[in-house]
Specification:
The chain contains 7 helices and 15 strands. It binds zinc ion (ZN). The site of zinc ion has 8 residues, from helix 2.
Length: 281
């Protein structure tokens, strides 16, 4: 996989990453977040649109956003409700006196966005693309010039974790297919650097999931296994956190295979259902 790497970005300073778009990286580096969450400051006539305020664990980041925008924030947009994106939302909206825009059915129970978005809605020149899979409320945002903010649906430094029950593998693969069909020229992800000409990369991401699922099914045809046995067999992750993430991905593949009637579960052990041979009559 052609994952992109980059040196640690300068903290507290917004850098231009596209025409009229500044990137500010929060101080929440980690094995799942790379250098940290990307907050995008998108210039608009009425002030800045802030996409993904970042985590609640980095109060300095909120100050940095207010400083970089001069406090002129027209709206705060959210790609999805995971804590590393939504954590700072309430405080930023309050301090900037700005409305929030997010998917109409947020995964965070007590969060009600000021403006509820649906697939295809256009706000401030950005079109919301409903892309569930990584999270059930995930939106990408497309600008008219071909630039797409892909959140955690498509990251450039790593593949995304699809963790049930919030994550759903059928939806994730369908949302990848949707992005391949759109064929947008440039991505700005929720973590990691900008990627241009991403179509082959997204095709590879999708193929990897298809291959992984077949590998899981074939392993279960040989013998029944638990999800942790499967992830140890199929992934060679040494870091315990990555191993846990791998197991979450395995679980969402298993849930998909189960819905398709290809595997069955008893307690923690999964077994392949023999493939039906359709005979011509
Ligand atoms: Zn994230």
């Amino acid at each position: 996989m052609a994952f992109m790497k980059e040196p640690e970005p300068e903290r507290g300073v917004a850098h231009e990453v596209a025409d009229g778009v500044l990137r500010l990286v929060a101080r929440n580096p980690g094995i799942m977040t790379y250098h940290g969450t990307n907050t995008y400051l998108i210039e608009d006539k009425g002030g800045f649109l802030v996409l993904d305020p970042g985590p609640a664990t980095d109060p300095q980041h909120i100050d940095d956003i207010l400083q970089a925008t001069g406090g002129r924030i027209a709206a705060v947009l959210l790609s999805h409700g995971h804590t590393d994106h939504i954590g700072a939302l309430d405080e930023l909206c309050a301090r900037a006196d700005a409305p929030s825009y997010a998917y109409r059915t947020p995964i965070v129970e007590d969060f009600v966005p000021s403006v509820k978005l649906d697939d295809g809605d256009t706000v401030f020149g950005l079109t919301a693309i409903f892309t569930p899979g990584h999270a059930a409320d995930h939106l990408c945002f497309a600008r008219g010039d071909g630039l797409v903010f892909t959140g955690d649906h498509i990251m450039t430094w790593s593949s995304s974790v699809v963790s049930p029950p919030g994550g759903n593998m059928e939806q994730f693969v369908a949302s990848l297919k949707l992005m391949i069909d759109r064929n947008d020229p440039s991505y700005l992800p929720g973590h990691g650097p900008r990627m241009d000409n991403p179509r082959d990369y997204v095709r590879d991401l999708m193929q990897r999931r298809i291959d992984r699922e077949e590998a899981i099914y074939r392993a279960l045809q040989r013998r029944p296994l638990s999800p942790s046995q499967l992830s140890r067999t199929l992934y060679s992750k040494t870091d315990p956190l990555l191993q846990m993430a791998a197991e979450r991905n395995v679980l969402s593949h298993l849930a998909k295979l189960e819905r398709e009637g290809r595997v069955v579960q008893r307690d923690d052990v999964w077994t392949a259902v023999p493939e039906r041979h359709v005979s011509a009559v």
